[in-house]
Amino acid sequence: MVAQNYVVDLNKPLVFQVGHLGEDYQEWIHQPIASKEGPRFFENDFLEFLTRTVWWAIPVIWLPVVCWFIHNSLQLGLSCPRVALFVAIGILVWTLLEYSLHRFLFHIETKTYWGNTVHYLLHGCHHKHPMDGLRLVFPPAATAILLFPFWNLVKLMSTPVVAPALFGGGLLGYVMYDCTHYYLHHGQPKTEVPRNLKKYHLNHHFRIQNKGFGITSSLWDRVFGTLPPTKEGAKSM
Fold it and tell me: Is the keyword Membrane assigned to this protein (predicted)?
């Protein structure tokens, strides 16, 4: 199903085209098109609808769920300071998960038809069209499906009292991640910290795609040695 010298037609739905690129797929997705107008993915209108999500849907849908889980731990007798502690731990665990997924899953190299197709849906589309505002956050339907195994894993690894606060913290970390990710692409930060974070992330898209996997911070890039070199360091390499 992989075709030699295949040329993607950007005026047609892309998902079932990109697999034909074979080994050329990796080079193709890392030649970004910096247009705010996203491509069509599917011919089918319902499938196309499922791929598009406005950024504000994430806090509107998931923050009440976060509050519900945290409230459960309080109702089960966990003190406020301990709830705050486990929520913070949940957020920290999310940042590691965010980094790990981005580095090891979203940037896996594929060359088969179905490997390229699945990867494009997961993350390749974002690198090809990084300014597509309706495909910057994770679709809520997919998130809801993934929450069940993660919730069961948290219950397995902690106590019934702690689990809701820990899971609520992780989910809050995810909400912060998705909102931050959208802001880094479309926001206009005025202060130094968010401005530097925006530069850091856009550097990952437009200069060095195999470094700088952190979105909400560069913490785990520092820990695991995946900080991108500075422009001066890159010139001397």
Answer: yes
